[in-house]
Structures are given as C-alpha cells and as structure tokens.
UniProtKB/TrEMBL annotation:
<feature type="domain" description="F-box">
    <location>
        <begin position="12"/>
        <end position="58"/>
    </location>
</feature>
<dbReference type="InterPro" id="IPR011043">
    <property type="entry name" value="Gal_Oxase/kelch_b-propeller"/>
</dbReference>
<dbReference type="Pfam" id="PF12937">
    <property type="entry name" value="F-box-like"/>
</dbReference>
<dbReference type="Pfam" id="PF24681">
    <property type="entry name" value="Kelch_KLHDC2_KLHL20_DRC7"/>
</dbReference>
<dbReference type="InterPro" id="IPR001810">
    <property type="entry name" value="F-box_dom"/>
</dbReference>
<keyword id="KW-0880">Kelch repeat</keyword>
<protein>
    <recommendedName>
        <fullName>F-box domain-containing protein</fullName>
    </recommendedName>
</protein>
<dbReference type="InterPro" id="IPR015915">
    <property type="entry name" value="Kelch-typ_b-propeller"/>
</dbReference>
<dbReference type="InterPro" id="IPR036047">
    <property type="entry name" value="F-box-like_dom_sf"/>
</dbReference>
Length: 451
C-alpha cells in the first residue's frame, strides 16, 4: 500500500525529481536500515538502492577505501554483488579454517613458538621472536591460499625476545620492548623494513630508533597499535619483578622514521593494570582494548575504546553484561588475538582463562554496533549493547587447536586471517624447560569461503 501511495504522488515529490547521482549521494548519508526501507518505496528507487555501484560505495564508506581496493585487487576477487557481500559480513556466523603447514616436511619452517610477532606488510608475512633471535619472511602477494615458502633472514643487531609488540606503520614495522631468555625486560624501539629484490629475494632490515632520553619503562606482554601513520600507542604489560602496569604511552614518529619521541598519556578513567591483553585500531579515531590478566591474576573481559583527537586521547569503557550473551561466560581471556577484519569487525580468537584452560573459539566484537550509539547511551543501555556487540562464530573446515599467546594478522583487505604458533596442549614437540609446549602450525581463516 505504501508503494502504491508513493507512486500516485511521485510527480509531486521533490525527491523524485533529483538526478540519480544526487539520490545516490543522499543514500550514502543514510544508515543501512534506511537505505533498505527507501528501496521499498517504488521500482525506480528499488533499482537505485540495490545497484552494485551504490553498495560498493557503501562498502567503501563503512569499511574504508583501502579494504575495498585491496579486496578488488586480489586474484581471489570475482565480480559479485556488493550488497550480497555486505549482508554476508553483517550476518557473519562462521569462518572456514585451513592449514597452510607443510604436511610432508619438505620445506624449511619456523620453529614452534609463542609470544612472538606476526605481521602482514609489503605483501609478506613477517615472523619474529620468542627465544630465537631469528626473523622469517614468506612472500604472499595476491595468492592468499597457497602453501607458503618461508625464508629465514638475519635479525642483525635486534636481539631475541618474546612478549614484545610489533605493529605495521605505513610500510614499516615498529617493535617495542619484550623479554629475553634471562627474564630481562627491554624498552628499546626498532624499525623494520621489508624489501623485494630480483637477485636477493626478500630482505628484512632492522634499525634502532633514536627516541632521545624519554621512553616507557621496560616491559613485556603489553599491547600496542598504530593510531595513524605517525603515532603508535602502547598500554600495560609486565614490568620489573612481574609487576603489571596500567600506563599508556604514545610514540610520535618523524617523517623519515629515523627518530621519534615518547610521551605518557594520563586519562581518567583508564583501563586497570594488566598483561596479555589486546589493543586494536578499528579506524577513524578509535582503538579497542580487550581482556588480559589483572593485578590479582584474574582474567578480564572488559572493553575500552581509546578515543583519539588532534588534541587529546581519552579512554572510554563500554559496559556490557556477558551473562546476557549466549556463551558469553567464556569471554574473559588472556593471550588471545584481536584482529580487524573485512566489514569493520574485530575477530577475537583463542586465549586462556584464569585456570590456563586454552580456547579454540572465535568471537566477533561488532564495534559498529557500539559506535552507532553515543557513549552515554551505550553505558546506560548495557543489555542492548551486549546483544548487538558480541557474537560467537562457528569454525568450519580444519579444526584449530586450543591455543594461547599465538599471533594473528590479516591481509590488506581483512578477508583472510593468518594465525601462527602459540601455547598448546598435547603436542609432540619437545617441551620447554619449564613445561610449556609450543605450536608451529600456520592457520588460514577465510571469512568468505564461497568466493
């Protein structure tokens, strides 16, 4: 009836006289529910609101142009309705897992490890750390599903460590801190660069960053992320004598990445001291902190947004009741991974609980559900936020192990997630001297298996 009524007055409606490109501009200003409702008004608007060009623009708006362009440039990309892709990710309920480890042992592979780093930069996977002072690089390019050939490369003067952070800043890697075999904490900052040569193959070079006389206290098991092309933020970790820290520091990098400066950010309120948590940039001015182990050795499940503006950084806690979420009692964890994936979702995998029971579950934290509401409303309406922000996903295909202190990273588009290593149970690899067992498997997680 509404459609018929609208059509009878179509000639008298100002919006019906707008050119199609102007209507598309209007639709791009609307939330998705309004776009879909608009499509129901008449045949002309239904065609426009369902057009592939409009939905590609919506994907660019909500996911960022870099993710869309990276997705389109992949050789896994096929012509597909962007509307279907958008709806699939909004309704995401499962992921498909594959193993990329060599079953025949015919290739040189990184040794099993945990609390290392794994990053995707310059079309390569870069792995570094644990007790080994080695770096490994595997070129991927656009073929994300193939078996990888790892190359061991020199770490130069960068010493072996674990529990460090290594994040991508532009085309570079930035390492801070970590713990060596003797239990000593570091507070040095390094910059790494991957280069591909016709004759030399893939190389990785590290240089110590000059940060002057001010730096965060030494630590390991902290969390870090890049908040723009020139700034890195770290939070928490374990300092001297195993004391957990709750401070927040920002690194300002020079344009040529040759030097930088650290300064501490003090904000009230702010997350409690912790280690083994995650801090992930989610676009715009926001990063998300989740979980970790607190001062009393308890495992946490709190969620904090770090709001960054040109003049200040502010922590905002997002309150929710995990008792209202199906399976939410399993949410508290430490040693998990939290990775931004296609669709603006935060994919959380693995970790362990207070009793060191390791997990193999996947969760999506929908930051869009929180960001669409003002912070004050989110705090007041915790039941609605709880229902909308968390969802547990099914894992199909290859069954992943229960593991913690593994590392994960996504390709440029966010469609594929790579997971390597971690602490595991029941593995035949020789145990470390203090009883820990490490994994050396590379796992590929695909969000869109039907492509």
């Amino acid at each position: 009836m509404a459609e018929t009524s609208y059509n009878n007055n179509n000639n008298g409606s100002p919006i019906s006289n707008l050119a199609q490109d102007h209507l598309s501009t209007v639709l791009l200003c609307l939330p998705i529910d309004s776009v879909l409702s608009f499509a129901m008004t008449c045949k002309r608007f239904r065609s426009l609101a369902s057009s592939d060009a409009l939905w590609e623009s919506i994907c660019r708006r909500d996911w960022g142009p870099k993710s869309v362009e990276a997705f389109k440039s992949s050789n896994q990309y096929h012509v597909l309705p962007w509307m279907r892709l958008y709806k699939h990710l909004c309704q995401l309920d499962s992921v498909t897992c594959h193993t990329l480890s060599d079953p025949d042992g015919g290739f040189l592979l990184p040794n099993p490890r945990a609390s290392h780093s794994l990053n995707f930069v310059s079309d390569c996977l870069v792995l570094f750390g644990r007790h080994l002072d080695d770096s490994w690089v595997a070129y991927i390019g656009n073929d994300f599903r193939r078996m990888l050939t790892w190359h061991k490369v020199s770490s130069g003067t960068l010493s072996g460590r674990f529990g460090h952070t290594c994040i991508v800043v532009g085309d570079y890697l930035v390492i801070f801190g970590g713990i060596n075999d003797r239990g000593n904490r570091h507070n040095d900052t390094w910059v790494g660069e991957v280069a591909c040569h016709e004759n030399l193959g893939v190389t990785l070079s590290w240089k110590l960053l000059d940060v002057g006389s001010i730096a965060p206290p030494p630590r390991g098991a902290h969390a870090a992320c890049c908040i723009d092309n020139r700034r890195v933020v770290i939070h928490g970790g374990m300092g001297f004598h195993g004391v957990r820290l709750g401070d927040t520091w920002v690194l300002e990098l020079s344009e040529n990445y040759c030097f930088g400066s650290w300064h501490e950010v003090v904000s009230h309120p702010s997350p409690a001291a912790r280690s083994g948590h995650s801090l992930t940039y989610i676009g715009g001015n926001r990063s998300v902190l989740f979980g970790g182990r607190g001062l009393g050795y308890e495992v946490l499940n709190d969620v904090w947004f770090l709001d960054v503006s040109a003049s200040s950084l502010k922590w905002v806690q997002i309150l929710y009741d995990f008792q209202n979420i199906p399976g939410g009692v399993t949410l508290p964890r430490v040693g998990h991974s939290a990775t931004l994936i296609l669709g603006g979702l935060l994919l959380i995998y693995g970790g362990e609980d207070t009793y060191r029971h390791r997990k193999d579950d996947f969760w999506v934290l929908d930051t869009n559900a929180v960001q669409s509401t003002s912070m004050q409303q989110a705090i007041l309406n915790t039941k609605r936020v709880s229902r909308n922000m968390w969802k547990r996903l099914k894992a199909e295909g290859y069954k992943p192990k229960c593991q913690s202190f593994h590392r994960a990273c996504a390709d440029y588009s966010g469609r594929f997630l790579y997971v390597f290593g971690g602490m595991v149970d029941g593995i035949v690899h020789p145990a470390e001297s203090y009883g820990l067992r490490f994994d050396g498997e590379l796992l590929l997680v695909d969000l869109i298996p039907w492509l």
